[in-house]
Design a protein that fits this description.
about 210 residues, mainly alpha, Four Helix Bundle (Hemerythrin (Met), subunit A), membrane, Protein-S-isoprenylcysteine methyltransferase
């Protein structure tokens, strides 16, 4: 029995990612991932970071959520969307997703060389509490969680909704771990005070 790579590719990258109008959402997130990975080379030198094994507490739900977010599981199981929004609904979802992505990019650009894909203490690290960081403590997570939840619901598959929820939980867990780490590294007086002043992920809520 020969190996059919085209069939495997059609399962791994098909369904909502290649069917209009939901294809529009796939293109938006593909553009985001490409730009995000491309910008990963712009960051300062790391002084200290959370160990890889400990980081699995947030990496695992994000990984599983990411797999569910693709059309792979739904294609294999033959699951259909719970609802279909149509062109207008998907267009609105696309605008909202782009707004979330833009907020995340604002956070990343404002953070500058202190940004990292992992939980780290950069050289000359300090508390950033201006721009989007004056609205929420983790604007990157806020933007991405919002955009992914909107996209997951717009697609309407159980897998995309569950994937979005798992990714959101993973980012929330990463944010909590990051705050414990930075409170120790930057000092409770500096980072702890910031946490008591600015909401974590949801804007205009009480800081916790």
């Amino acid at each position: 029995m020969s190996f059919d790579s085209n069939k495997l590719l059609s399962i791994a990258w098909g369904g909502w990612t290649t069917t209009w109008p939901t294809e529009l959402l796939a293109l938006i997130w593909l553009a985001f991932l490409t730009s995000w990975v491309g910008a990963s080379f712009w960051q300062g030198r790391t002084k200290k970071q959370v160990m890889t094994l400990e980081s699995q507490r947030y990496r695992l739900p994000i990984l599983v959520g990411g797999i569910l977010y693709t059309p792979f599981i739904a294609e294999v199981m033959g699951w259909k969307p719970l609802w279909v929004l149509g062109n207008t609904g998907i267009t609105i979802a696309a605008v909202l997703s782009i707004a979330g992505i833009a907020f995340a990019w604002w956070g990343r650009l404002h953070l500058g060389k202190f940004w990292s894909n992992t939980i780290t203490h950069k050289e000359d690290h300090r508390v950033i509490d201006t721009g989007p960081y004056g609205i929420v403590r983790h604007p990157i997570y806020t933007g991405l969680i919002f955009g992914m939840l909107v996209t997951g619901v717009a697609i309407g598959l159980v897998t995309t909704i569950l994937g979005a929820i798992l990714i959101s939980l993973g980012m929330w867990q990463k944010g909590r771990m990051e705050e414990v780490f930075l409170s120790k590294e930057l000092g409770e007086d500096a980072y702890g005070a910031y946490c008591r002043r600015v909401p974590m992920i949801i804007p205009f809520t009480s800081p916790r």
